[in-house]
Amino acid sequence: MTERTPGPEILFSRTDERLGLFEVRAVDPFADIELLHGWVTHPKAAFWLMQGATLPDVEREYLGIAAATNHDAFIGLHNGIPAFLIERYNPAEVELKGLYEAETGDIGMHFLVAPVDGSRRLHGFTRAVITTVMALLFDDPSVRRVVVEPDVRNAAVHALNEAVGFRIERKLSKPEKDAYLSICTREMFHAALAAPAEQDAAAEQATPAEQTAQAARGVTR
Length: 221
Fold this sequence. Notes:
single chain; alpha+beta; 7 helices; disordered C terminus
């Protein structure tokens, strides 16, 4: 009898009552490179800022993240199928160094939902993804706040962020974009989870242009 080769280690999981199982594993910069390249260069991933990246460019990017001590990358699975990308980082050293008042327990994140055509889009899926990302981050008891800096033009992500508890603090000017410094504490996240579902409607009622943006991560380089 042939033994099954174990798959990548699952680092975190949660079950959505309506959409099923969400799991998270580490990115393998070699095995995942073609998958990642297809995601980050897709037209719907414009806010990821890698539209013109080659396969070697993407490989270098994720090898660099894998070697870093202040930055991690993860593949998110939906019912066992790769469906989203997460980056977790120390915002005081990556993305926001010198741009905000860092506190002990801060963590930053990027997320990217894999592009799908409209006929395969699941209602509430992007909201379920960002909820999984936030749950992953707060699963670490040392994390007190999630700090992000989405592009000011990314209206769909601002709605999603608000739905899971983020509050915009102020506008920032970065070399690659104007961004909204946004913060969510553990308490704010749990309060948002307890809020009535009707309050989340804005995140799921986007215009066609905003639906394109919903495939992009909440923050960009």
